[in-house]
């Protein structure tokens, strides 16, 4: 069975998260895919950043939704890196991409880019929000989708199926064999996040997960040999 290793916001444990530098490092480390986060800027661009505000990851202040992409580009996102727009990442690295969308509006903007550039085979779309997963699945024929959850109830597998998701991405600290077996029985893949230690990597393999999201490139190397 293939065990996928996904670079979380690139390899954010060693590089500024959600930057071209981080994504390039993830690709060079052999990650099977890179994960990134998308928010809409004031002028409708798909800005690659995790938080709704720029405060934590840049030298700026304020909400992404209240800044144009040009204004976001003026900020230092770490080590001189700039806040990338989604299309820049697609051009800078050749890796498969897992794009997390924060709401339905972002889903619609992402769908436009995916349809224009024929990205259904390269870009997998994830979200914590069932409605955003369902929206992108409706807008982009053949797109692969992922429902993410940190805390969940017993209906999480049913939720994923109803939203049309092919994969569940679940918090490794709360993941149980029962949930994994339920998901697999329904034909769903299960990814654990965030797997940053050898103990969590061993747990991921013991649970029979299909892959892991990690902040560190060395997890990719270790994963090849962890039974």
UniProtKB/TrEMBL annotation:
Source taxon at top rank: Bacteria
UniProt-listed Gene3D superfamilies: Phosphatidylinositol (PI) phosphodiesterase
Residue span, GP-PDE domain: 3-224
UniProt-listed InterPro entries: GP_PDE_dom, PLC-like_Pdiesterase_TIM-brl
Pfam family, one: GDPD
GO biological process entries: lipid metabolic process
PROSITE patterns: GP_PDE (PS51704)
Gene Ontology molecular function: phosphoric diester hydrolase activity
Name of the featured protein: Glycerophosphoryl diester phosphodiesterase
Organism name: Streptomyces pratensis (strain ATCC 33331 / IAF-45CD)
Lineage summary: Bacteria, Bacillati, Actinomycetota, Actinomycetes, Kitasatosporales
């Amino acid at each position: 069975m293939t065990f996928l290793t996904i670079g979380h916001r690139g390899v954010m444990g060693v590089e500024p998260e959600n930057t071209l530098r981080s994504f390039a490092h993830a690709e060079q480390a052999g990650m099977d895919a890179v994960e990134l986060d998308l928010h809409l800027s004031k002028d409708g661009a798909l800005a690659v950043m995790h938080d709704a505000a720029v405060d934590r990851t840049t030298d700026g202040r304020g909400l992404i939704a209240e800044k144009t992409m040009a204004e976001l580009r003026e900020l230092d996102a770490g080590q001189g890196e700039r806040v990338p727009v989604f299309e820049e990442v697609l051009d800078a690295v050749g890796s498969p991409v897992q794009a997390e969308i924060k709401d339905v509006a972002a889903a619609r903007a992402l769908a436009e880019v995916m349809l224009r550039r024929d990205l259904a085979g390269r870009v997998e779309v994830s979200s914590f929000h069932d409605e955003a997963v369902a929206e992108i699945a409706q807008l982009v024929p053949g797109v692969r989708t992922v429902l993410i959850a940190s805390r969940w109830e017993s209906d999480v597998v049913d939720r994923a199926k109803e939203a049309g998701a092919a994969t569940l991405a679940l918090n490794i600290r709360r993941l149980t064999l029962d949930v994994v077996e339920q998901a697999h029985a329904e034909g769903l893949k299960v990814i654990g996040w965030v797997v940053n230690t050898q103990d969590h990597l061993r747990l991921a393999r013991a649970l029979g997960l299909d892959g892991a999201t990690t902040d560190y490139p060395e997890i990719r190397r270790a994963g090849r040999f962890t039974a």
